[in-house]
Specification:
Largest sheet: 4 strands, mixed
Shape: globular
Order of helices and strands: EHEEEH
Number of strands: 4
CATH superfamily: Glutaredoxin
Number of helices: 2
Bound molecules: FE2/S2 (inorganic) cluster
CATH topology: Glutaredoxin
Structural class: alpha+beta
CATH architecture: 3-Layer(aba) Sandwich
Radius of gyration: 16 Å
Amino acid sequence: MATYQRMLFVCLNDRGEDHPKGSCSRSGGAELLDRLRGDMADRGLKRVVRAVGTRCLGQCSHGPVVSVQSEDVWYGGVQASDVPDLIEKHVLGGEVLEHLEIPDDQLIGVEHADHPLPTLKRKPKVGEP
Ligand code: FES
């Protein structure tokens, strides 16, 4: 399949100054995304991995937040200075950066096992068995 192998979603949400929930954009989200895109392009990864800016990813107290999909890895407090490790170790090395991972018990959401969703059903593409 010719598509991106990893997607990095970088929260750029901005609630304005002094909002109690905080805003990833005000704690370095935009600088982080710029560095990520620039460094990935320099490494020739533009068509391999995609970094996109998003609105709120629901983990606001941990900003700036990066969600790596489809691996379901959630990083918090990520700064532009973490980009070399993100690329070298996670994207290219397949290694989770444990020091940046938001602890499971602090993630906002529902335990997957408590609310399982069905596996996606897809018709075979032309030429597939
Ligand atoms: S503001 Fe970034 S996760 Fe909510």
